[in-house]
Amino acid sequence: MGFMGRETTGADGAAPRTAPEPGGCGRSPFLVTMAAAAAAAAVVAADATAGRAVFLSALAVFPVAVTGWCAPVAHAVALAVAAAGGAFAVRPDAAGAWSALALLAVLLAAAVLPGRARAALAGHAEAAATDPLTGALNRRAFQEAAERERLRAERRGEPISVAYLDLDGFKELNDRRGHQAGDRILEELAARVMRTIRGTDLFCRIGGDEFALLLPDTDAREAAAVLQRARRTLGDEETPVTSSIGIATFRIVPTTVGAMVDAADELMYRAKRLGKDRIVGSVIAGPWLRWDGVGSDGAVDAVTVDVEIVPARTAG
Q1: How far, in Å, are 168, 174, 234, 241 from residue 184 at the CA level?
Q2: I want to staple 214 with a disulfide (CB 3.0 to 4.6 A). Which of 102, 202, 256, 269 is the partner?
Q3: Alpha-carbon distance 43 to 47, whole Å?
Q4: Which of 267, 123, 266, 243 shows the shortest CA–CA distance to 186?
Q5: CA dist 294 to 151, 255, 266, 297, 299, Å?
Q6: What is the pLDDT of residues 64-85, one digit of tens each?
Q7: What is the CATH number of domain 139-310?
Q8: Count of H-run helices and E-run strands, the chain
Q9: Where are the domains of the chain?
Q10: Is the pTM of this model over 0.85?
Q11: Each residue's pLDDT tens digit, 80-132
Q12: Is the C-alpha dihedral spanning 86, 67, 38, 29 positive or negative?
């Protein structure tokens, strides 16, 4: 079965997906600004016909605030200045000038504060979705994003690969050098992987020294090549840290993300049993009786699995 080619990224490629993308309104900032400008112009025009008893120009705060949330702050500031200028044009006297200045202050606040609030919310969302040490996705965020990719692969009939990575000798490093040294190793590994993968790939810290990587539309050899570039020996000569990796490539997508991760996890343990410091990859065609837990007859998955072992290659 043929697979589509894989585009890898380096320093100039798209950033790997480690957290949900912050968003505004899901609309073009230019279109939002134009619609808000039309609304503000309508407010000023209504103010001009309403007479001095009612200061309708104050209603321009709403289109300005929407622009501040959905578009660049410069657009919102320009709209605020234009709306305040329109209010002064309606009342071109000393009282109107003071009213326009007061309105400008309110509109500028409405222009700036929504964008700051959105940035703060995006920061909280990113913090909630990522592992604080490595910057990789945490398990909950990975589960949600991986399910979307699983459904996409199922709908399009595309292959999908999941890798499970566990460090060899990490406990010994922690015991001899302390947890700070272990944390540096985890940070270095995560940085290597995230420099190597594409923006569409999902990298997750499962816990401790275990990581998962989901690679959409990627076959086993391509996935192994990606992980091989990131798995060079960590640590130092006195306390080297290598990695054992299992890669499960699915030509027919399982029914759950857990099934995919469990398959890769099992292959990782096979790499451990074969001597560690290596990659074991399997191309799996289904069904998923073993990993999905379906089937009441206790049948064992009889699918033929093509296993490829990538020997250790730890040179930098």
Answers
A1: 15, 11, 10, 12
A2: 202
A3: 6
A4: 243
A5: 19, 10, 18, 9, 9
A6: 999 988 888 899 999 999 988 9
A7: 3.30.70.270
A8: 10, 7
A9: 29-129, 139-310
A10: no
A11: 999 889 888 888 888 888 988 998 999 999 889 888 887 776 666 565 678 88
A12: positive
